[in-house]
Sequence to fold (525 residues):
Amino acid sequence: MIKVVTAEEMQEIDRKTIEDLGIPGIVLMENAGIQVVRVLLERYKDISNRRIGIFAGKGNNGGDGMVIARHLVNKGINTTLFLLAKKEVVSGDAKTNMRIVTEMGIRVVEIDSLEEFESYKKEILHCNIIVDAILGTGLNSPVKGYYKDIISFLNNLGRLTLSVDIPSGLSSDVGEIIGEHIKADITVTFGFPKRGHLLYPGAKYVGRLEVVDISIPKRLGDGVRVNLIEEEDIRSLLHPRDPDSHKGNYGHVLVVAGSIGKGGASALASLSALKIGAGLVTLALPEGMNLAVEVGIPEVMTLPLPQTNEGTIDLSAKDKILDSLERKDVLLIGPGLSTHPRTVMLLGELLRAVNSPIVIDADGINGLKAYLELLKDLSIPIIMTPHPGEMARLIGISVKELKDNRLELAQNLAYRYNIYLAIKGSRTVIAEPEGEMYINPTGNPGMATAGAGDVLSGMIASLISQKLSSSNALRCAVYLHGLAGDIASTHLGQMSLMAGDILSSIPEAIRKVKGERDNCNIQGA
Fold:
């Protein structure tokens, strides 16, 4: 896991590095600049033929830019430092580097007003690569004054742009766009990624993110509660199968789902549970749908249930479901279920009576509002997988408010209701009852398609049935689900992606993570 920090957490880590460990700030700044130069040289092979414009503020971010300028000039690369202040106001470690840059005779252009900026526009037009070292990670309000005009101008140039630590103008703590900001091709950040690097819509302007080592010990991030999921974390959860095993060793999932007109959701959830390894899956569904499923999906067993006049599962199905669940490992409820009043009442009755882990998705979440307080007292693991609209409706806020505060809200809700929560979307966020949180890096916009969430819910339930903990099953399923979508999109494109394509790509996703590359049709393998 990689820890993901806020600006405040990073400031505390910096303080401990400097004060407790005794690594001077000027050394950290030197290391940061050297690492940025390394990335520039690796990414732009013809950089010696380029003209570099480094735009530096008066603080530590600008100090990093001054170190970058020194090392580029030492390598004979045409470099100009555009200081967005007067030299005399530069302070701290940046002041030391400003003095060195001056003594070396590196060209420094001082710009502290819009009028001065106007006089240098023509020169800036000749820059091939822009290095943004204007503002650091502490920003919490929109950029103002001539900084705003300069950032807008640099974006309109359309030049290759590398941002130091974070694109200037973006918040490091939230994905919300708070004003004018640099649109970077590459961002090089130090020690740990920041939340604003990963959360959309702001993450769209980070470009390729490079997290580099500047001598900050990783253990200083141990108290941080937000983590970025890595492939190796998931690989450790996918164990080889015992040659002397049978289907009973890999769990039995009960899926309670479906209604007339929404049979596809129940089918996708059931099939994905099998595709990711469950030994057995039983689909409990309205009796009027039973024949079609038995004929159409022979791998899935069925449990026909009493139905309402509208073709949804009736409240009277409770005892039959509970009897069946005695021989199952996990209950998945919700895909295509409907919000018929008697079906919603069934959901409440099952929550009170079930003794197995429960995965709740789709209409299961839509019908949960009356039973939220009940969740607090349940001793069984509850896993919920809402998209932002479902979550916003459930807790009575707007989708915008949810998206703007997704991490904090997820963490608070998971703790308050004692649930494992995955709020789906660009960078799915996972929150656990004890407060730990995870950001998932896989997935793409093509997965915004009907049925994609049903595939995920089946994967989660299946992994629980295979004896993974709720925490591990949720992280593993979310990562593999996104990766399957990424693999499918490389073959089909994002526009044509369907839920069935994600389902079909689950085996490739598993093989990729496990490193089983022989006979694996993965680009770049």
Observations:
- Residues 470-492 form the longest helix (23 residues).
